[in-house]
Amino acid sequence: MALLGMLLGLLMASCFTFCLSHQNPEFALTSPEKSSTKEAERKETTAEEELDSEVLEVFHPTHEWQALRPGQAVPVGSHVRLNLQTGAREVKLQEEDKFQSNLKALKKGKRLDINANTYTSQDLKSALAKFKEGTEVESSKEDKARQAKIKQLFRPIEELKKDFEELNVVIETDMQIMVRLINKFNSSSSSLEEKIAALFDLEYYVHQMDNAQDLLSFGGLQVVINGLNSTEPLVKEYAAFVLGAAFSSNPKVQVEAIEGGALQKLLVILATEQPLTAKKKVLFALCSLLRHFPYAQQQFLKLGGLQVLRTLVQAKGTEVLAVRVVTLLYDLVTEKMFAEEEAELTQETSPEKLQQYRQVHLLPGLREQGWCEITAHLLALPEHDAREKVLQTLGALLATCRDRYHQDPQLSRTLVSLQAEYQALATLELQDGEDEGYFRELLGSINSLLKELR
Ligand SMILES: *[C@@H]1O[C@H](CO)[C@@H](O)[C@H](O)[C@H]1NC(C)=O
Ligand SMILES: *[C@@H]1O[C@H](CO)[C@@H](O)[C@H](O)[C@H]1NC(C)=O
Fold first, then answer.
1. Rounded to 10 degrees, what is the CA torsion of 57, 60, 66, 71?
2. Predicted confidence band of residue 340 (pLDDT cuts 50, 70, 90)
3. In the chain, what is the greatest distance between 2 CA atoms, to the nearest angstrom?
4. Atom 14, ligand 1: which residue's CA is nearest?
5. Which are the contacts of 7, defined by CB distance < 8 A and separation ≥ 6?
6. Is there a domain that residue 18 lies in?
7. Which of 223, 226, 235 maximizes ligand 1 atoms within 8 Å of its Cβ, making it the mutation to test the pocket?
8. I need a labelling partner for 332 at 20 to 30 A (CA). Which of 121, 143, 228, 362 fits?
9. Residue 217, ligand 1, Cβ within 6 A
10. Could you identify the atom of ligand 2 that is nearest to the CA of residue 228?
11. Which amino acid residue places its CA nearest to atom 2 of ligand 1?
């Protein structure tokens, strides 16, 4: 990571120490934090992203350079540089946005890396000197030089590659990077920090479907799945983080994961004493594994997954998890319904997918294990979006839970009080000119539930 940072730094330094106006008096390499590029490229998916800030201690940059301590996370868009004199990583707020986008344009999806064995900071210094010579010649010729500078900012990747080859810097493919990260994680000589860092980086790569499938080809997925067995909660957490991304809408990987025992391991973590942050990521991985994969859903039910989730949501201080669990159940219930509808519409004679869904006996399980009541009680949560999810789920479970809802006097009372609350909010919304507003929609769900229950 540090070396990658230095290399990005080389790029950046060549841009702004010399192309710009020699404003930077210190000799230091500067780069935008890698994660900012990551974030921009990353599929915007999950509620998972919001979790990351809770995990690492977050550093709050100012306009001054400040040293970064190990383990501190940097907000997206910060500038990070390696101070060659002290060896410390330093951070400040991002100012030169255009250089960052230039850098992105240069990188064009390829990632650069350094051959650690042959690389020294002396190489870098002489490389920088070379860059400097080049630019000074140009800058003497005013406008023409200006154009040349701009051109240099957009040098083709091949040309850059040549420069880096001279420095024994190689451009790795995603596959090579993943192999390296897995080896790092799998090596008994790696420290805990190195292992976590390897998983953190790996997560970025496996968002891409092809990469996640490549992970299968050299046994990398199994190594990560085995990471769920680690005695270190952080390793469990970050292994789940990688798996959640790798499973996501990727049937090939989902199938391998079931065969590799991922489901049991995820459930064991959810059923045992673990930090909440680990459970969140594990729940996320479980969702990714089950979605659109009826076979995994069957196994989940067979392994007592519903009991595990019930214990989880009934524990104190797990409201955040409870809403996610209910959302998962809602997704599974509706997924099966859609499969039925789709089969009916397309009139398939032997729809295998439907056969598979028919083996998922989710609704009876939910009813038997008290999910009608559990879901109804979650309506007491104060957040609108939590209530929205709960209302959706109550609606989806109506046919299954109708009598249970009837026997729950608290449910009607809660619905009536929410009706009043959202009536008022919907009126305000309407006054603001929103005739298809959020609160109005919530009110609609409440009204139709109340109607069903009368
Ligand atoms: C991980 O390490 C184990 C034991 O050291 C080894 O047997 C296995 O081949 C390694 N797996 C990968 C994918 O490198
Ligand atoms: C991981 O742990 C489970 C129980 O939690 C155990 O059954 C399994 O054998 C372990 N696997 C490895 C590879 O250690």
1. 10
2. confident
3. 85
4. 183
5. 112, 113, 114, 164, 169
6. yes
7. 223
8. 228
9. no
10. 1
11. 186
pTM of the model: 0.66
Amino acid (1-letter code) at residue 393: T
Q: 187 CA to middle of ligand 1, Å?
A: 8
Q: What is the Å distance from ligand 1's center to 186 Cα?
A: 6
Q: Are 311 and 366 in contact (CB under 8 A)?
A: no
Name the closest-CA residue to atom 9, ligand 1: 219
Expressed in angstroms and rounded, the spacing between residue 248 Cα and the centre of ligand 2 is 24
Give yes or no for residue 339 CB within 6 A of ligand 1. no
Q: What is the pLDDT of residues 38-83, one digit of tens each?
A: 433 343 334 344 444 344 466 677 777 777 776 666 665 566 666 5
How many angstroms is it from 226 CA to the middle of ligand 2? 8
Per DSSP, the three-state class of 260 is: coil
Distance CA 69, CA 85 (A): 16
Q: What is the pLDDT of residues 293-324, one digit of tens each?
A: 999 999 999 999 999 999 999 988 888 899 99
Which amino acid, 411? L
Between the CA of 22 and the centroid of ligand 1 the distance, in Å, is 49
Lowest mean pLDDT among 106-110, 113-117, 178-182: 113-117
**Does residue 38 lie in a domain region?**
yes
Pocket lining for ligand 2, CB < 6 angstroms: 226, 229, 268
CA 322 to centroid of ligand 2, rounded, Å: 27
Distance CA 323, CA 321 (A): 5
Nearest CA among 227, 213, 229 for reference residue 178: 213
If one counts every other C-beta atom within 10 angstroms of the C-beta of residue 153, the result is: 19
Is 404 among the domain residues? no
Inside any domain, residue 209: no
| Count: domains in the chain | 1
The protein residue with its alpha carbon nearest to ligand 2, atom 9, reads: 229
223 close to ligand 1 (CB < 6 Angstrom): yes
* Domain coverage including residue 59: 2-172
Round to whole Å and give the CA distance between 398 and 404.
Answer: 9
